[in-house]
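Name: Membrane protein
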Amino acid sequence: MLRGIATMIGSGTSNQVGAALGAHAFGTLGPAGVVAVRQFVAAAVLWPVARPNLRRFTWPQWWPTLLLGLVFATMNLSLYTAIDRIGLGLAVTLEFLGPLAVALAGSRTRLDLLCAAGACLGVYVLVLPGPASDYLGVGLGLLAAACWAAYILLNRLLGTRLPGLEAPAAATLVSATLYLPVAAVLLARGRLDGTAILYAVAAGVLSSVVPYAADLVALRTVPARLFGVFMSVHPVLAALAGIVILGQLLAPHEWAGIAVIVTTNALAVHSASARRASGIGRATGLGKRSAAVARRLRSTAPHGEPGRAGHHDGERHDAEEGQQMPRLDSAHAG
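Structure predicted for Membrane protein:
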């Protein structure tokens, strides 16, 4: 368990450090250029691993894949542009409203309604709207959140239509193709500076490849519920990376807003996971003790077994828990 927790901490730190390094390339490549390089890195890693046979894709497989590719492109661009305008910590915190919304969707429990109200309060405290507020930056952060919610739902759908990594690999290729014109413009203008490219590639490796591999390792020893709750601390890691690497100091009200949103997200994920486990117990006629045994069996199933806490080949998290599969193709909360 301790090894799994250490792996999750390393994954989260790598994720946010990569995002901060990518921000160093904004001045030369712009957010769109950094995203383009990241998409190329993700495609170069995913495609040889998954090797999807696109010629065999049917339309019911193609249309959500194309939508997922569009979501990848929009999610990363909106997040990185938000980072450029309002800072890493604030942008990542706003993006986390996406999985929080999925976790709370359709729920009518008092705790979840309280979490929803807490999230709204957290956003207000985080932003403190005023004449000097960057509403475009905030809006882009919220757009990234909406894209993350769509990402979760599309992955849930594609998990039933395509095996393994074929869906994210194909969608990443679609997204990378959309960014080819961006790379062409940068090349034509002579803006493909070596140092900036290195920063962007580092962002792709540290924020995509390393966290993806680390998360898959962690999920073999850490229960899915704990993994989902731990994901809630990513805004804090993003804020710390912003301070150390980018010098982006936060005001007290911004720290307070981050704390409120992180807390509500953790409570919502825990509540959704508890409801799901309780539902399994009721559906099978088990008592509380039997439900606990069922949850333990689900969380300790060998890697790759379909019964493992809603995972498909150890890659996806159930959208009802407000979690997400390891995001090789995107900022993964930064």
